[in-house]
Amino acid sequence: MSEALVQIATAGAVRTLTLNRPAALNSFTAAMHAELRAALEAAAADAAVRCVVLTGAGRGFCAGQDLNDPEMSDVEAVVDTLYKPLALSLRSYPVPVIAMVNGVAAGAGANLALNCDFVIAARSAAFIQAFSKIGLVPDCGGTWLLPRIVGRARAIGLAMTGDKLPAEEAERIGMIWRCVDDAALGETTMALAHKLAALPARALAQTRQLIDAAMPMDYAAALGQEARVQGEMSRAGDFAEGVAAFLAKRAPVFKDR
Ligand code: T3D
User: How far is the CA of 248 from the centre of ligand 1 (A)?
Assistant: First the structure.
């Protein structure tokens, strides 16, 4: 029997799923997509599982799409039928998901990690929005996730250059939760996983939903909202007091509640 493309292990309430194509840096074939989907569905359906950890076998986390997989010739269909449901399932998953990034995470592999609730990376790991190097655009949620996580300037920079972002730098700019020494990766991740597993999973999943639902207001709507609230503020006493105090060169006394 051939080896599983996604290895499954359980420790208490924590289910670990390990992408297992190390010779190709765990890049995605259609078959690995299918195994990951089945493993995620099984963990979601198992009430004893209260946190999922996603990681990679060998020296890489995931190098995105397997650029050799003959079953992946219709790129639009691959993105629409495989990466899109994967991203959506992670963003509506019933329990917290941690990406334990053990090595390079490139292309859809980088964005797979960013779809998880937490990313803990080994110091030797790196993130690469590799798409531009092969004439593609970020997928697996990259165009939505990146600007929300790191801001537009860094999102554009990372996506256009395809430059390697070391784990330490990823932590510094707030793209990931933590970067830890390679030797501490497993222990740190499992400590967080067991802590999350002991928390109320439904509340944690709802927290994620609420945060995500609050984000996607479009630019025109945000500008409209600013105008409306600014109008309200300008009609309130504190605005008059603030301007009066400024012009009189005295400290303001604000009273509005
Ligand atoms: O259907 C669609 O195409 C649409 C979906 C798109 C989603 C995407 O993810 S597009 C982006 C695809 N990913 C990439 O472009 C990344 C390609 N890989 C790399 O740039 C480099 O491998 C890394 C920077 C990630 C790591 O470099 P390095 O030097 O540490 O390792 P390496 O020697 O390049 O790779 C090791 C082996 O893995 C090598 O095989 P070999 O020569 O030992 O037999 C390499 O070919 C293989 N490998 C790495 N990435 C992929 C891959 N094989 C197939 N597909 C890959 N993506």
Answer: 65
Q: Are 96 and 54 in contact (CB under 8 A)?
A: no
Cα separation of 65 and 69, whole Å?
Answer: 8
Predicted confidence (pLDDT) per residue in 197-212, tens digit: 999 998 899 889 888 8
- Contact 113/170 with Cβ under 8 angstroms? no
Alpha carbon distance, N-terminus to C-terminus of the chain: 69
Tell which residue, 122, 123, 120, 176, has the closest CA to residue 149. 176
Using one digit for the tens of pLDDT, what is the confidence trace for 14-31? 999 999 999 999 999 999
The DSSP annotation for 197-256 comes to HTS-HHHHHHHHHHHHHHS---HHHHHHHHHHHHHHHHTSHHHHHHHHHHHHTS------
Average pLDDT over the chain reads: 92
Residue 207, Cβ neighbours under 10 Å: how many? 14
Residue (of 215, 218, 219) closest to 91 by Cα position: 215
Among 5, 25, 104, 114, say which to mutate for ligand 1: greatest number of ligand atoms within 8 Å of CB. 25
